[in-house]
Amino acid sequence: MHVKLKPTQPLARPATTNLLLAALAPDDLALISTELEAIPLPLRDVLYAPQEEIEHLYFPTTGCVSMIHTTEDGSVEVGTIGLEGLVGVPVLLRANSEPTLALVQVEGEAYRISATAFREVVAESTHMERIFLRYAMALFNQVAQSVACNRLHTLEERCARWLLITHDRIDGDEFKLTQEFLSYMLGVHRPAVTLAAGILQEAGFIRYSRGNITVMDRPGLEGASCSCYQATRDDYDSLAS
Q1: 94-134, pLDDT tens digit by residue?
Q2: Looking at the predicted structure, is the pLDDT value of residue 44 above 50?
């Protein structure tokens, strides 16, 4: 028998700020809510490591988690997860681990559930499982869109896209995003990151200084992005339909 998790501290946002939890039927939400633990997501916190057993799943309510894949040639971000989703999809798919690192890219908050409790809860509701599987498909689509984007679009367009995705997942217009994270996100070395961010800053779309980004002109940033941003957003929006 698993031990139920208890909230360690009150958070500013209810669990239903997470769009997956908000999409659940009332009975399913009540079922899973008894197992949720409210936690902060500190910057650079490792939620799970490559090839290690995933002990918890996370439903972010703000902030952004980066899925980073590392090879002998370097590291690159393959996906991001925020309030639209769930960190720990391999558990949903009946796996215990995966080869990517789940790292908090922008600090925030989340509701956490043990992998054991998650499996038990999902087994009790086919409707809940269906909602979560639809999200898994949307996440896979995001990864596929990112591969195409990295191959077909300019560095400035890709940078604008990732900044918009991150902006969607935070409160306000300012967030910390280091050159290291931007290089992971864009799959390029830091000098190229500086160049791309500098172009967007010169256009007045963002202000970028010492790892702090402020979105100054959201419509302008959307215009600078490639079509992949809207395609990914539409995919996630369809989860609510």
Answers
A1: 999 999 999 998 899 999 999 999 999 999 999 999 999 99
A2: yes
In a domain, 143, yes or no: yes
CATH code at 99? 2.60.120.10
Give the predicted TM-score (pTM) of the model: 0.84
Same domain, 82 and 174: no
Q: What is the pLDDT of residue 194?
A: 81
- Please check whether residue 71 is in contact with residue 99, taking contact to mean a CB–CB distance below 8 angstroms: no
How many domains, in total, are found in the chain? Answer: 2
